[in-house]
Write a structure and sequence with these properties.
Layout (H helix, E strand, L loop, with lengths): L6 H19 L6 H8 L3 H7 L3 H23 L6 H14 L1 H17 L6 H21 L4 H16 L10 H23 L1
Helix pairs in contact: 1-4, 2-3, 4-7, 5-9, 6-8, 7-8, 8-9
Amino acid sequence: MPKVVDHERYRRELLMGCFDLFAAQGYGTITMRQIAKGLGVSTGTLYHYFPSKESIFMQLVQELFERDLSTFFAQASEALSLEERLQAVADFALQNAQYYYQQMLLWVDFVQQSREASGDEVACLRQVWERTHSALADYLQLSDPDLVDFIVVFLDGLFVQHIYGRDAEDAAWFQQQCQLMIQMVIHREQRAQT
């Protein structure tokens, strides 16, 4: 009896394995052959599912966005107040800070390597940012869209702090910064509504 393969599930498994490979070796230096070897598949199998390294990356970005969004909403409680919703976002970001730091480094590496690309690859990142912004705006229910921009920029800034050596040992500092952001957003939102 022939083996039945769920091609979409297998494609996703391959894709998710690529994140660690890209993070470990860098987008710019890893080759399709190295990716195939790291995943334990032939290069032919890899090319069957992904026509290029760029294709892997763009699909990975989309897949990670969908997974992260789904994970967040599965974990986020039914927060009633703005402060509770902001705290849920901050908690999720802090719990996954190392992962988002790796993701940010990978995105930067990709953009550096794609400077001469057609722009479709970088547009993929922009689209994910816009979808993240939209999902965050819907969840937080803020009246001022600039506040959503501020929160996204703030979170990106937290992840950049890992470059400066801040990590789990600085958990209290990260929490303090999140509390400051929450209070600033609440204050601005209250002013906007009066």
